[in-house]
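Worked problem 6 (solution included).
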Amino acid sequence: MLGLTFRQLQVFVDVVELGSFRACADRLGINQVSVSGHIHSMERQIGHALFYRRQGVTSELTENGHLLYRYAVPMLEQAHDLMQELGSTEAGRLRPRLIATGPGYVTFRLAGVLAEFGERFPEYQIEIEPNDSYPAADAVARGDADIGFHIGLEGTLPASCEIVGRERIAFYVGRSHPLATRNIVSAEDLSACPLISLPRKDRLRDVVEAVLAQLGVSGNLVALQTANAALAQRTLLQGKAMACLFAQIARVEVELGNLVELPLAEALPMIEVGVILSRRISGRKAAAELLMLSRRGWPVSQKSPPD
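Solution. The predicted structure is:
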């Protein structure tokens, strides 16, 4: 055991927590052969196998592998604390990266939360990788991310998600739009209105389409399809199209009188924000702290729809 290095222990722990040799190699920026070499060297020194070898299956620990993992995690954490206490520049090299991913709007809203989390837990190196193209749960399952933010209609998020916030959405038009002065706007009115839409690959578009389907709105002409918020806002202010927006995004323009929230006969569902955590952080003190900070950083929008 005395011959094991901290580098070997870090590789071993990453394989365990990321689920495969490939994911570990990608995370550490080394090739898979190097990861296998570290593990084989450890097994030779210990005299026991650490993983069951099964082709195409997530790396599974042996009994001795479980024992080593229980000791390795606190050893690495203590090594980092010691190097930091000594003021060593090597401390940063021992810090495991925690990658956060999810829709750009969510990671933007919670960037301050992640920054505060990083200050409270300096043993982790926090990196934010916004992604609007695929579910964050997939990135966490593949080992590409440790913190996955999800967004969806109330009650539709994966069961493994911890709900950390809720956000109100609504339909908005420019103040010169024909619907801007209506007391009630029907599904038929909405169906006849050109829509500013997100690109097909954007996950938030699925949320908007689910809202439209729930209201019975269909057949809208597409006035503009873009992920560029500034371009979408300019088109909306021209008064010739509508958009489904988070109330928080539209708040300032509504207060200035530039945008009008359409009063609908049927209340829209709330949008939920959830977090999925990888094995390497789930169950630790850091995980509970992250969930607490996320809930505090995402106050529920409670403004009622206009009368």
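Discussion: Residues 282 and 288 are 8 Å apart (CA to CA).
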